[in-house]
UniProtKB/TrEMBL annotation:
The keyword Transcription regulation does not apply. Keywords: Signal. InterPro entries: HAD-like_sf (IPR036412), HAD_sf (IPR023214). Coiled coil: none annotated. Residues 1-20 form the signal peptide. This is Trehalose 6-phosphate phosphatase. It comes from the Eukaryota.
């Protein structure tokens, strides 16, 4: 699981060229809750876009299983409440793969974007590869051939032996897990891959995590903006928000800001890093703030729900 998290950390967008602001200079979202609430309550079609790591769960320091379970319970409660609101579409968009969203898959009405939003899983279970990053499969095939032709072999006398090098499951990047990172043969293989990518695939870059024995080949220009731009065109949304904590979420914020003609769309960064640059226009400090703020928002009555209650009465 940690290996897949590292893949996500490596799949970052290029530093935004659009205007960004230090987190320290942003207003607290709590100070503008009434603005969020008014826009939300008066809307007809709503969309909420949540990053997972750092927003629906903590990142950074290790936590106990008990703490992780408590976070998951709160995240599920928030997402469940959000999806139960009439005319409300809710997305969890993550840089990681499908494994990372398993804890939420049984929540009715919830949509997902995985691998930076390049792969979509709709609330009805339909899956779509929104973007197939060019050359990923080609690179994977050529690296697999390099591995087969090398001297690195699995111990045939040990049925439980791990593959010396294996591909981690991702659609649009090439993560490699090395069993013995420091061996001469592994070092030679990584050096060969670096030379191969540098010569033939200049749009791709390589990030290595020696501690975790993982090498990742990826295209750094892929980000969440493409998915957000797509879904915003699907319905006449008149309220929405994005919640993200890192540079990989900047495209998501920027796409939402771009349609904010009537000031009914809100971008929120979740961060305590005062010098972090972001295009988001509001801030919260932690995932706990996300639970609190958006649970309060989704607890408010809307025009649609109020009309339903009136009709039922």
């Amino acid at each position: 699981m940690r290996c897949l998290l590292l893949v996500a950390l490596a799949l970052v967008s290029l530093v935004p060229t659009f205007d960004a602001t230090p987190v320290a200079d942003l207003p607290e979202a709590d100070l503008y809750f009434e603005s969020f609430a008014k826009s939300y309550q008066n809307s007809q079609h709503r969309i909420g876009l949540f990053d997972n790591d750092g927003c629906l769960k903590s990142t950074g320091k290790p936590i106990s299983k008990q703490e992780a379970d408590a976070q998951l319970q709160k995240a599920r409660a928030l997402l469940t409440k959000a999806t139960q609101v009439p005319n409300s579409d809710v997305w969890v968009i993550t840089a990681r793969n499908e494994e990372s969203i398993k804890p939420y898959l049984d929540i009715p009405g919830l949509n997902f974007g995985v691998e930076q939003g390049t792969v979509i899983i709709r609330a009805n279970g339909e899956k779509e590869v929104l973007i197939k990053v060019p050359q990923v499969d080609e690179i994977k095939m050529k690296i697999a051939a390099m591995i087969r032709q090398s001297a690195i072999k699995k111990d045939s006398n040990d049925p439980d032996a791990e593959e010396p090098i294996r591909f981690l499951p991702m659609e649009n990047s090439i993560p490699l897990k090395f069993h013995d990172w420091d061996s001469t043969s592994s070092q030679d293989m990584r050096h060969g891959i670096e030379q191969f990518i540098g010569k033939h695939y200049t749009d791709f870059t390589i990030t290595s995590f020696a501690k975790d024995k993982v090498m990742i080949i990826h295209n750094p220009t892929i980000n969440k903006r493409t998915l957000v731009e797509k879904v915003l065109k699907e319905k006449p949304y008149d309220f929405g928000f994005s919640v993200g904590d890192d540079i990989i979420d900047e495209g998501m914020h920027d796409a939402l800001n771009a349609i904010n003609i009537n000031q009914n769309f809100f971008s929120v960064v979740v961060s305590r890093k005062s010098d972090q640059q972001t295009v988001a226009r509001h801030k919260l400090s932690t995932h706990e703030d996300v639970y609190r703020f958006f649970t309060a928002l989704y607890s408010l009555p809307t025009k649609v729900s109020s009309q339903r209650l009136l009709n039922q009465g």
